[in-house]
Amino acid sequence: MATFESLLKKYVNSSYDELLNLCKANLGELCGILGKYFGQEQTSTTLMILFGTCISVDGKLNGLECKFINDLLGANMSSDEIMKLAQSCVNTNAANFIDSIADALPAEEKSVLLSACLCFLAIDETITVDEIKFLEKLIVE
Residue 25: is it exposed, middle or buried by C-beta count within 10 angstroms (0-12/13-18/19+)? Predict the structure, then answer.
């Protein structure tokens, strides 16, 4: 079994396209998983909270992260619009909400959520201490 550190390195060392394709696949699966529990409208809201939380964990947003969000969503949002989304998640209990979802999911479904988060967190080729704490919070029930 891979160690947590080796898993983080695997994601950080993945190419942009690998992370984008993996995240798209994860989000496709998450739509189905979350749809079972929340319905379509709540699933969309929950995914936006997930995006915002992952963006806001380290408090920084760079051009590569903006490109990733836009490529992932097929959107053309400005960095200000993306930062506004992230800041809306900082001012709420968004991380706790995502954690409660992770805690409620069976292991296989939880791994899809964690993989999507890792894609977001690794896209800038670093994972900060705050991002590691966030991931650990999601892993531990």
Answer: middle
